[in-house]
Each structure stands twice: as structure tokens, then as C-alpha cells.
Amino acid sequence: MKLNTLKPAAGSVKSNYRRGRGQGSGGGGTATRGHKGAQSRSGHSSKRGFEGGQMPLQRRLPKFGFKNFNRVEYRGINLDTIQGLIEKINATEVNMDILVQNGLAHKHDLVKIMGRGELKAKVNITIHAFTATAKKAIEEKGGTVTEAK
């Protein structure tokens, strides 16, 4: 085999169809756009979802739902996760910086401590929000709860 003998398989390469190049080309006159109407003119573009005048799908379907743009989204972290973190880094205090360093939250997240699991150690937590069960569990072990802003 030589490089100068290589060529594509027969029938796999077609030459481009050149529209609007005279009557002899077979695509002259109207350049295969048909007669008259917006689609035959230059610069025509239709709206997204346009169905030729038929009621478009996005208008046929009913509207539903509501998106509350005032919603405050928290990243929930449970007490068992906090306990695992305390054992891993031997901490007595947990704050946003420690959670970010250990990959439990991103620096722009709002964090809420949830009540699942059991806390075995005394720990002081400074974070954005707490559930009532989490707050109770932390304070029962002698820890403190501080809500950061």
C-alpha cells in the first residue's frame, strides 16, 4: 500500500450541490426554494418552536408550578458527618473554614446542621443555621451553637 494510491470508498464522497447557478444546473431560477413566500426570500428565519401557524407545543401544554426566587438554599450536613470530621481532624471547633478545607461545603454555600446521627464529643459549632434536634444534641454534649451571618 502506498499513500499516493489511497482514496475514499466508492460512493462515500459526494460533490456539493451548487444552487442557483443557471437553468442548466437543475437548481437555477428559484434555487430550489420554491415560489414566493417568506422562505424563498433571503434573511428568513423562523421563531424557535414555530410550527407553520399551528399552535406550538409550548403553548398547547398547560402552565404549572412556581419558582420562588426568594428561596434560601442551604447545604445540609448531619451530625454523624460532623462526628466523622471531629474524629478525622481531632477538632473541638467546627466553622465554615474547616468544612470548606475538608470538602464538606463550598465557600459560598449556606450550611445548615441537621439532626441525623449521634454526636459523641463536645464541639463548638459556628455555622449559618441549625435544626432544633441538632441544636439540642450539640448542647446536651456540652457544646455551643453559634449562628453565623
How is this structure best described in words?
- This protein is an alpha/beta fold.
- It has four helices and six strands, in the order αβαβαβββαβ.
- The chain has a three-stranded parallel β-sheet with strand order 1-3-5. It has a three-stranded parallel β-sheet with strand order 2-4-6.
- The radius of gyration is 33 Å and the shape is elongated.
- The chain starts with 56 loop residues before the first helix and ends with a strand.
Put the structure in a nutshell.
By secondary structure, the chain is of the alpha/beta class. The chain has 4 helices and 6 strands.
List keywords for this structure.
elongated; alpha/beta; about 15% strand; about 150 residues; 4 helices; three-stranded parallel sheet
Task: Describe the secondary-structure layout.
Layout: H1 57-60, E1 74-78, H2 79-89, E2 93-94, H3 96-101, E3 110-114, E4 124-127, E5 129-130, H4 132-140, E6 145-147
Parallel strand pairs: 1-3, 2-4, 3-5, 4-6
Number of strands: 6
User: How much of the residues is beta strand, in percent?
Assistant: 5-15%
Low-confidence stretches: none
- Largest sheet features: 3 strands, parallel
Strand arrangement, major sheet = 1-3-5
Number of helices in the DSSP assignment = 4
Residue-averaged pLDDT: 94
- Helix amount: 10-25%
Give the radius of gyration. Answer: 33 Å
**Gross morphology:** elongated
Task: Give the end-to-end Cα distance, rounded to a whole number of Å.
Answer: 73 Å
Report the structural category.
alpha/beta
Helix-strand string: HEHEHEEEHE
